[in-house]
Specification:
It is built from two helices and four strands; from the N terminus they run βαββαβ. By secondary structure, the protein is of the alpha+beta class. The protein has one domain: 2-Layer Sandwich (Alpha-Beta Plaits), CATH 3.30.70.3090.
């Protein structure tokens, strides 16, 4: 599986509810998407999410199906410390 970083820009600050998080988790499990971590900007209007998935098209469909922005999707070659 490849690693992808998804940049999302929101019109307003974002705060997901527990039911929204559960729905996203369920979608990801059923579509073989492995979420690794996310970072949220201080103003809560931009997020950076790291996923492990076989094909970038799956992440594009993920964003479209869930109504999430996906302003940039970047393949990451490796994670370093």
């Amino acid at each position: 599986m490849a690693l992808y970083l998804v940049e999302r820009q929101f019109a307003e600050s974002v705060e997901l509810t527990e039911p929204e998080i559960a729905m996203i988790d369920s979608y990801e499990r059923s579509h073989e998407i492995r979420w690794l971590t996310s970072f949220l900007s201080a103003d809560k209007r931009k997020s950076y999410c790291l996923y492990e998935v076989d094909d970038v098209a799956i992440l594009r469909k993920h964003a479209a199906d869930l109504g999430l922005p996906a302003d940039a999707i970047i393949e990451v070659s490796e994670m370093t410390r």
